[in-house]
Amino acid sequence: MAISAASQQSSFVPPPGGRSHTVVFGDTLWGIASHYGVALQKLIAENPQILNPDLIYPGDRVALPDAASGESGAGPATPSGAPASEGSGGPAQVAASPGAGANGGVSAEQLMQIVPQLDAGQAPAIASHLNQAMAEANIDTPQRQAMFIAQLAHESGGFRYMEEIASGAAYEGRADLGNTQPGDGVRYKGRGYIQVTGRHNYGEAGRALGLDLINNPQLAAQPENAARIAAWYWGSRSINDAADAGDFVRATRLINGGTNGLADRQSYYARAQAALGG
User: Fold this and answer.
1) Residues with Cβ within 8 Å of residue 47, at least 6 apart in sequence
2) CATH 3.30.20.10 fits 169-221, yes or no
3) What is the pLDDT of residue 55?
């Protein structure tokens, strides 16, 4: 159940006296339900304004079922704007990201230096997801990390877009993407920080990461999965080799298939090198 960049849902005002949660980047309905100790289906039923439970948006207010409705274990309401993390027993706390370095990754402050337009409220969660993904894929030097973050920042519009704006219908019947079933084009449209596209690529990424992306393609748009999928792709194309050689153009070709947006990518890269020492 993913979070997207801009709300397309109808306006909603929680009933007077009712509890609510304000959605921030990284939230999912499952995580919100788990945090407040309510059943997911009860939460969905309480929010008829959410037209698609797989898509929630920063700034949306999610009404929380009344504790008297039979739900137990509901914790105190998280202050507006605080993320609801899965399994938390109280208001969610975002751990500070470690500093730069071979084992440290990127801090929220450094990420904002690299991506100046990034919302300060989103930076800690994005940095945390990136650090976890980079650790999985041995993107473990400042040089590798600078190149990885720069490429992802460009591909995602500064970590703003988690899903391709187009419908995906243009990919229908594309055998080179493995789209062999009716509806595959829309179903497996580009999602995540590097816009994984097509049944074949969803299947490969899912098998590598233990995610059922074939039956649940929206999982690719969840921030934590978007970072892991990008790191998987990076590793599957041995892009660390290009990073180690300082060959930014080669890394761009391996990501993009060409050199589209090279100047913008290089701007992110220069800031990443300055922030991380790569």
Assistant:
1) 12, 62, 63
2) yes
3) 72
Token code pair at residue 34:
């788990």
* pLDDT tens-digit map of 152-174: 999 999 999 999 989 999 999 99
- Concatenating the DSSP letter of every residue in the chain gives -EE-SS--SPP--PPTT--EEE--TT--HHHHHHHHT--HHHHHHH-TT-S-TTEE-TT-EEEPPPGGGT-----PPPPTT----TT-SSS--PPPPP-SSTTT---HHHHHHHSTTS-TTTHHHHHHHHHHHHHHTT--SHHHHHHHHHHHHHHTTTTT-SB-SS-SGGGTT-GGGT--STTHHHHT--BTTTTB-SHHHHHHHHHHHT--TTT-GGGGGSHHHHHHHHHHHHHHTTHHHHHHTT-HHHHHHHHHSS-TTHHHHHHHHHHHHHHH--
Q: 192 in the Ramachandran plot: left (φ > 0), alpha (ψ -120 to 50) or beta?
A: left
Q: How much is the pTM?
A: 0.64
Q: Please name the fold of domain 20-63.
A: Membrane-bound Lytic Murein Transglycosylase D; Chain A (3.10.350)
For residue 218, count other CB atoms closer than 10 A to its CB. Answer: 18
Query: What one-character-per-residue DSSP string does 103-157 give?
Result: TT---HHHHHHHSTTS-TTTHHHHHHHHHHHHHHTT--SHHHHHHHHHHHHHHTT
What is the pLDDT averaged over residues 94-106?
A: 49
pLDDT tens for 202-257 read 999 999 999 999 999 999 999 999 999 999 999 999 999 999 999 999 999 999 88
Percent of the chain with pLDDT over 70: 78
Encoded tokens for 261: 């947006």
Domain locations in the chain as residue ranges: 20-63, 108-162+227-276, 169-221
